[in-house]
Specification:
glycosyltransferase, Rossmann fold, alpha/beta, DeoD-type, 10 strands, 30% helix, 28% strand, Nucleoside_phosphorylase_d, uridine phosphorylase activity, 234 residues, five-stranded mixed β-barrel
């Protein structure tokens, strides 16, 4: 049923939803890869679409930026619309010198500087990890497509503009591959609800090298390797 954030009706979403942060990336992907596509949500400009890819029903919807935003949309997709799998397809900043612009990261787990997990009242620290079967399928697909990919940990941060400009380097020393802003909340929500989730990221900029960063339009329309892996495993 519709929510304050989603006008879609029951049955409008497929069992698997691809979630870019940017709703315009959702629009680009839907218009260029799906057949028989229809828009199912437009509340607050958070565009959502459902169509078919190679005969398989798939949905694509923006998540917005940050854990609170993806937390709302993923929770409602899982609980109100019967979605079983969410695959985040986002951008990230590299924290390792061997992780280059346009490389793809398949996130095995997510660290965080957020207090997101306090709501679960756990007697310790929750390790937010992706669903292994989705991860395994993504690795297989990336290999078949000869995509340069990395599997490992990312840091989902609450802060884009951090008062301590060197804070990210602490995560770098722990072997964390890249920084983004959503995966910890997505993985935690999926775990709490007994659902599945995965994050695929394309490196858009680097915090440890002088490689030129990608533009907003490039992030919207040219991160197709990651998008195609997600579509194939959806």
């Amino acid at each position: 049923m519709p929510t304050p954030h989603n006008e879609a009706k029951k049955g409008d979403f497929a069992k698997t939803v691809l979630m870019p942060g940017d709703p315009l990336r959702a629009k680009f992907l839907a218009e260029n890869y799906l057949e028989d596509v229809r828009q199912v949500n437009g509340v607050r400009g958070m565009l959502g679409y459902t169509g078919t890819y190679k005969g398989k029903e798939v949905s694509i919807m923006g998540s917005g930026m940050g854990m609170p935003s993806i937390g709302i949309y993923s929770y409602e997709l899982y609980t109100n619309y019967g979605v079983e799998n969410i695959i985040r397809i986002g951008s990230a900043g590299s924290l390792q010198k061997d992780v280059h612009i346009r490389d793809v990261i398949i996130a095995q787990g997510a660290c965080t500087d957020s207090a997101w997990a306090h709501q679960y009242e756990l007697p310790g620290t929750f390790s937010a990890i992706s669903s292994y079967d989705l991860l395994e399928a993504a690795v297989k697909e990336a290999k078949e497509k000869n995509i340069k990919y990395h599997v490992g940990n990312v840091i989902a941060s609450d802060l884009f503009y951090h008062a301590d400009g060197e804070a990210a380097m602490s995560w770098c020393k722990m072997g964390v591959l890249a920084v983004e802003m959503e995966s910890y909340a997505l993985f935690s929500t999926a775990a709490y609800l007994g659902k599945k989730a995965l994050t695929l990221l394309t490196i858009s900029d680097s915090l440890v090298s002088d490689e030129p960063e990608t533009t907003a339009e490039e992030r919207e329309k040219t991160f197709t390797a990651m998008m195609e892996v997600a579509l194939e495993i959806a």
